[in-house]
C-alpha cells in the first residue's frame, strides 16, 4: 500500500510528512519526505492547548482552547499533505491511506488517559483519502502505556539495513525514547526521559530562540555536576519498564540560577545521562546505537552521548536513513499495519497484555467501504 505518514511531535516545531510503499511488514520502499514548520501563532495555540489539557479527565472532551487547536492542527495537516502531493507530483488517487498521529496534549497512561488532538474524520473529508488516526487509544484502553509506538518500525528499519543485533535506536525528540532490537523476539522499548523539550523551553525563555542550534549554547557552557546529580534522582529512571512520559514530566527549575550556556550544557548532559541510564533496563549491551530525531543534529548532545554510552554510536544519517522523517514514516507504516490488523504494540514495548493492533479508520464519503 502507498501510505502517507504525518507526525506533529512533542517539540511542536511542525509537521513531518513521509510517503512509504509497504506491506506493513518487511517490505518497505521509501518515498519522498517533507514537512511544514509551525509559526509562532500556531505554537501559541498549541501551548494554550497543552495548558487546557492538564484539566482533562475525559479524552473526548474538547474545551474551547482544545477545539480551536484541533481544528487548526487538522487543517494544517491537510495543507501539508496537499503541498506535499503537489510538490512531488503525486497523484492523490494513488494514495491508499494516511496515518495521522495528531498532537499529543496530555499523556497520563496511569490514568488510562492519552489525548492527541487532530480530527481524523475532518482530515479524511478534506483530503478525500482514508485516514487512520488515534493510534494510541486501543493500547492505553487495554492497559498499555500508549507509547512508544515507533519500535515496530524501528525493527523493520534495522532488519532492512541488516544491522548486527542487538541494535539500539535512540530517538531524541521533545521526549527521548529507545528501541532495543534483539537478534530474536520482540523489540524492547521505553521513553527514557527528556529529549530537546527542556532545552527548547530554556532557549525560548532566555533568548527567544526556539532551540539550541547545533548545540552551540551547550557547547560553550559547563555542566553543573551537582545539578545533574539532583536531576538524575528523579524516580522515573529506576522505575521498571514499561514506561512512558508526558512532555512536561520534568522541570528545568534546578537550572534557573545558571547562565544560559551552563543551563543548556547541564540540560543536554541530563538528556544524554538519562538515555544512558535506560540501558540498565535492557538484557544486553547493544552492539550499535543509532541516533535519530532532531537531537541528532545537536553536536553537544552527540558528544555527551558518545561519552555516556557503553557502545558505539552513529547518527541515523550515516546509515542513509532520514532522521527527521522516521516518525512520519513510522505512522505511514503503522497505518498500513492497522488496516491489516497487525499488532502495533507488544508487552515489551508498551506493557500491553498481548500484541495489539490499533487505530481508527475514517473514510471520506466517496470512498466509504
Ligand atoms: N540543528 C539542530 N541543532 C540542535 N537541535 C536541533 C537541530 N535541529 C533540530 N533540533 C532539535 O530537534 C527538535 C525537533 O526534533 P524532532 O522533530 O525529532 O521532535 P518531535 O518529532 O517533535 O518530538 P517527539 O519525538 O518527541 O515526538 C527541535 O525542537 C530542536 O530542539
Ligand atoms: C504520548 C506521546 O505522544 N509520546 C511521544 C513523545 O515523543 C517521543 C516519546 O514521547 C514517544 O513515546 C512518543 O512518540 C513517538 C512517536 C512514539 O510513540 O514512538
UniProtKB/TrEMBL annotation:
Gene3D superfamilies: 3.30.420.40. It is an enzyme of class 2 (transferase). It holds the Pfam family AnmK. Pathway: Cell wall biogenesis; peptidoglycan recycling; Amino-sugar metabolism; 1,6-anhydro-N-acetylmuramate degradation. One of its GO terms (biological process) is 1,6-anhydro-N-acetyl-beta-muramic acid catabolic process. ATP binds at residues 9-16. It catalyses: 1,6-anhydro-N-acetyl-beta-muramate + ATP + H2O = N-acetyl-D-muramate 6-phosphate + ADP + H(+). SUPFAM superfamilies: Actin-like ATPase domain. Its EC number is 2.7.1.170. The keyword Flavoprotein does not apply. The keyword ATP-binding applies. Catalyzes the specific phosphorylation of 1,6-anhydro-N-acetylmuramic acid (anhMurNAc) with the simultaneous cleavage of the 1,6-anhydro ring, generating MurNAc-6-P. Is required for the utilization of anhMurNAc either imported from the medium or derived from its own cell wall murein, and thus plays a role in cell wall recycling. This is Anhydro-N-acetylmuramic acid kinase. It comes from Lichenifustis flavocetrariae. The gene is anmK.
